[in-house]
Amino acid sequence: MYFVGVDIGGTGVQAGIVDENGKILFRKECKTDVVGGFEKIMDDINILVRELLEENNIDIKEINSIGFGVPSFINKDGLVTCVNLGWSEVQFMGALKKRFEEVKIYAENDATVAALGEAKFGSMKDSNISVMYTLGTGVGGGIIINGKAFTGAHGMGSEIGHAIIGENYFDCNCGNNGCLETFCSATSIIKYAQKLISEGVESSILEKAENNIEDINAKMVFDSYRENDQVAVETITRFKSYLAKAMGSMINTLDPEVISIGGGVSRASDIILDNIEELIREHILYKKEDFAKIVCATLGADAGIIGAAFLN
Amino acid sequence: MYFVGVDIGGTGVQAGIVDENGKILFRKECKTDVVGGFEKIMDDINILVRELLEENNIDIKEINSIGFGVPSFINKDGLVTCVNLGWSEVQFMGALKKRFEEVKIYAENDATVAALGEAKFGSMKDSNISVMYTLGTGVGGGIIINGKAFTGAHGMGSEIGHAIIGENYFDCNCGNNGCLETFCSATSIIKYAQKLISEGVESSILEKAENNIEDINAKMVFDSYRENDQVAVETITRFKSYLAKAMGSMINTLDPEVISIGGGVSRASDIILDNIEELIREHILYKKEDFAKIVCATLGADAGIIGAAFLN
To answer: Do A253 and B157 touch (CB under 8 A)?
Structure first.
């Protein structure tokens, strides 16, 4: 039996045929034709999946299901609104069902899908209760309970980037103040380093950005942290202290077996994981007890295809 | 088939025989002999339950199970530490099993037990995913997933009073700053009203406490709120704004069907529920979607017996 996972992103669509061990056997991709509009993207996905199957001599009847990850929330009526894709309340689930009538289809938010991939075959394997934080431009999340993606009663759970954990000096894109996303995304790291530099603190980060403060990225901040640069140390220390607050609060709430950190920021896993358990322990109510193992994601971008393939 | 629930508190132990519809048929109580020590309390509970059964001509074989609620966390080895009861790492589960060998026994934290009672037969009835906040001296919580009490991988979940939601002007008893408990407990309401009064704001709350600021209680603050007293309005407005942040974050995380508010503070349910959904909506990521119904608990103190009876 094969499983198909499709990861729909703002620039490209990745499809993969996955075996029961979570191995991607074959893959194919196409561009996301945002200008062409919703129906065009849906048609392209249909062609992509069918070509992927044909080229590898696999009949759609040999497929258990096709799962889709989408960079948005899918509401209970199957509607999706996604600024990056130019979609406003499009009937996403309906459009998929029409094109893939002969097979079971499932779809979920991409961060939830990535968490499922990590829970099935990656950093959170063999755990029943696990949580993944995807730290990138924003902060996404996925909650796995009893081995399944958990998204709540109306499908809008697991948006843990918008749990409020403090007060911040700028508001979140969602309109609120204090969301985790404003403390622990790549964007928040860049913003805070820029803030300190603008306030006159000298930093090797600025050299890396060739003196153009707008060109600073999170990698430069982590690289300067390794050089003990003051701005970088302050920025990353703040980032980690809020990450520890968020994870401590999550442990006090859901007490998962494993918490995994994914997304672009997790490439600096050595810096993030260093001493993180001690920082988290400070925020845990039952300080003497064992708590969740903190790890970094291992499947990388493949988590999107693999997780989607195993939605059910 | 009967179910027995036992609610162990700092001053008394309440036991009840409950039918399958959640009705308490018979009840009996005894004092919690904190001075007598752990084994004495366990002996008293044994006598209490057996007398309750005998007096009502019910054989222990007719009992499905006995459940216990305890004002503490029970760790994975069955150990309990509870300052109120004078217990330090006592072998709670072992002591119960020794005394009730002939019947299945279960035990959980009392706030979790109350949530289960409300989910089975009270304010959160017929919901699969629900969350209860117990707002009293502290803030406890219970999370129900698929109709069962959810306490995580190590049994220390659902302590949602210690989720960090902001920065506060005093630290929590747990040692951290910003715990929900420091914004939304009865204690936090009293403290904030005292703070404003100490700063010189006139208030009818002080009259209610016969000019003794130490004697202010939460009921006085709610009563003065009804009279539009400035200190009370500021205090309750602040309390509700943080409650809305916590519940909005919970909806973004777990997206329950129902959130119920219990504990002593919930006696002012008209004030708490008034406009609360609009306040919460501000903190929800998907603002157009339906979200959890916000209600107040309906079983009162009986939730402790009823919920314990249905632990499994």
So the answer is: yes
